[in-house]
Every structure is written in C-alpha cells, then in structure tokens.
Amino acid sequence: MKKRILSVMSSLVMAGCILGTSSVAVNAQENEKIVDGSVLTTDDTSTGRTENGLERGIHLMDGECSISKAGISRVYCYGSTTANHEVDKLAVITYVQRYHKDTDDWGQVDWFMESKETDYFVYATKTVTVDRGYYYRVWARHIVRKGDDPVEETYSYTDGIKVP
pTM for the full model? Predict the structure, then answer.
C-alpha cells in the first residue's frame, strides 16, 4: 500500500513539474513583439549598441544609445559616438520614436544632435515630454570624418519601453 501511494504521489509531482516549466516558456514567447528589430517591453530602460564588427572602420569604433523613463510623461534619451582615435569631426544624431500600433511601425517624435571637431568622443542627451500609453525607443546615427577618407557611419537603436 505504501509503495502504491508513493508511486502515485511521485507521478503527480513529476506531472506538475513538467506542466509548470512548459507553461512559463510558452508565455515568454507569446508576449514578445518585435517591431523593426526592437522588442516592445515594459522595462524602465533600454540600451542599444552598434552591431559588433559592422561598425568598425578605420576611424569609427562604436555607437551607443539609451532611453529611460524619467517621470510622468517624460523619457531621458542619450546617444554617443566613439572614434578609434582623434578625428576631424564626429557626430551623433539621436531620434526619439513612438510605436504606432495601427501601422505597426515607428514614427519620429523628436530629434537632437551633437558634433565635435578634433576629438574622439561625442554625446548628446535630452529629456523629452511624451504621451502616455505608448512605446518609445531611441534610434541613433553615428558619424565620423577624418581627412579625405570617406565618411564612416553606422546606427544603433534601443528596445521600445512603454510609458504608462
């Protein structure tokens, strides 16, 4: 009798473990929506970096951008460009974008830029007032110029964070 009870109980425990782990994995995949490379998330912040290997040039090292919730109806946005060494000119152009559910695409809300001459690093920041209830992301363009060499350029973007 004891063997039968132990057998039934261990079977129930195993079945519960199997069902519990499989439902968690399915929920994570079902809730994730990706639009133009950005995951729509309820996180408070997101950071994007240039793809490894694709951004590196003779002069351009990498780029980075981020977006964070900064209070009610506000997001803090950041973008930076880094060169391998001192260059003639470098810039970061940072776009703040909102997800439009009806077109399933991103639309521009605001933009800002910063550039420097004879330097190797530039950054730009801005706090932007936004409408509540939408997803927002930052998309940044990173540009470097040195002498008569061709301009080197790449981009980075964050995931979309929801501003409740």
Answer: 0.80
